[in-house]
Amino acid sequence: MEIVETINEVRERLARARVQGRVGLVPTMGALHAGHASLIEAARRACDTVVVSIFVNPTQFGPNEDFDRYPRDLRADADICERLGVDLVFAPSTREMYPRVNRTWVEVEKLSEPLCGARRPGHFRGVATVCTKLFNIVQPDVAYFGQKDAQQAIIIRRIVADLNLPLEIIVCPIVREPDGLAISSRNQYLDAAQRREATRLYQALSAARRRFADGVRQTEALIATMREVLSQSPALRVEYVEIVDAETLEPVASIERPALVALAVHAGSTRLIDNTILDLNDPTASV
Amino acid sequence: MEIVETINEVRERLARARVQGRVGLVPTMGALHAGHASLIEAARRACDTVVVSIFVNPTQFGPNEDFDRYPRDLRADADICERLGVDLVFAPSTREMYPRVNRTWVEVEKLSEPLCGARRPGHFRGVATVCTKLFNIVQPDVAYFGQKDAQQAIIIRRIVADLNLPLEIIVCPIVREPDGLAISSRNQYLDAAQRREATRLYQALSAARRRFADGVRQTEALIATMREVLSQSPALRVEYVEIVDAETLEPVASIERPALVALAVHAGSTRLIDNTILDLNDPTASV
């Protein structure tokens, strides 16, 4: 495995690999965990060359968000990549990715506006822009994203379609702790009490899923069920609990087509998100 | 020469060419003239495979602009391409380029705001987006643009740099009629009287250039000279006469670094633009 820091090195290193076989990219902000590992493993199974990018992208953090304290440990991340059979780690500096003031932004209308977009202005613009940059730098045949960041995955798919980017996007399922908590780099911010309470996001989604399996289609009722579960923990502050169309992200009153159930909750200063898809064709699937 | 209408055909047709040699793209809206020919010739000299795209892009026209009457003659354009040794013409339908409502936009801050951007809201967003799409479809090693659309060329260069697009941008000089009028597809809208008066754009730029060669550096004085020349024709209505930094497009009071002198003038319902660069290192160059 090789670790490179510059765009030129990535391009040189991949010039031959690109002609000889499939290149898979797993874009990450580091702090790699079992969720990232599942993406890398999927890439390893399907691609000849697996590239992991590690870059904590400043343009997707708001001024009062956790850019400065976001966990960074390249050594530990590189060890994980090595163990998983990654071929190339691209770990650029901010200066390498943004050598001048950035003027060009990739903006996705409508899909960036609800859910996390409403509470994190500019977040998805930063994500869209840095992913487009990474796609252009690595030029992969396929890139892997996690369903944990459901809105991000939908936005990335739309960028690829709208801008005719020559790659395929694969979205892998959420990886959960044994108690159901969706694995996230930000879970390490939680203290022991918050960590116990954090499992209620999963419990809320599971409760909604059970009522859906019982035939409830009205989103108002499902949202009430989830809010009820979350309200049992005074340590959690709900940011949003929403059910939207899984493609357009527009709110739905009754579930007729696949719907995204999405939660954002604060535990102290830590923001946690989780989601599930409710689909009439598969009403009893687990979260 | 082959003419294809679909993205899949372009990609199939170029898959081998891309590996074997340099691919050059000349993006056009058709109505090909000597300006386009100079771009195609430059591509032909430098590239193994030359692709010309012909697409009148609706997203870069304002609601009251000339999208509907913009000249379209694929047969004549194809003949010109054939004669110039083009390998592949990509002439997609609007539906092929925009099969669904477009949500993803490439936006270039600051550089899109002054000059034509101020009078054509959304124009450069449309240009930036469609060029990014064309770059992703054709994946050329190099793309050719004309200096006639100076602000466009600066914006495209910035997109390529900011988004790390893996191609080179070459900007070719303005091609002029014998009387100095910059060649443009829109010149064919002019009646005989307007056509005669339209040469004053070139005369205004030439007058500014003479004063600059004589040592005048104050942009206010140079602009006054140009407005004086243009005002001699009652058939022309000045939209803007500006002198800006050739890189940032910010107004300059005195020319210390290369400056873009840019004009937009209406002759009847036809909008004409022209420009020149004033550079202290080359003060006596012609327009």
User: How many H/I helices of chain A?
Assistant: 10
Number of strands of chain A: 10
Strand neighbour order, sheet with most strands of chain A = 1-4-3-2-6-7
CATH class of the largest domain in chain A: Alpha Beta
What structural category arises from helix and sheet content of chain A?
Answer: alpha/beta
Q: What distance separates the N and C termini of chain A?
A: 35 Å
Helix content of chain A: 25-40%
What is the gyration radius of chain A calculated from CA atoms?
19 Å
The share of residues in extended strands of chain A comes to: 15-25%
Biggest contact? A-B, 29 and 29 residues
CATH topology grouping of the largest domain in chain A: Rossmann fold
CATH architecture of the largest domain in chain A: 3-Layer(aba) Sandwich
What is the domain tally of chain A? 2
Tell me the name of the CATH homologous superfamily of the largest domain in chain A: HUPs
Order of helices and strands of chain A: EHEHEHEHEHHEHEHHHEEE
What oligomeric state best describes the polypeptide chains here? homodimer
Mean pLDDT of chain A: 97
General form of chain A: globular
The largest sheet of chain A, given as strand count, sense and whether it forms a barrel, is: 6 strands, parallel
Low-confidence spans of chain A: none
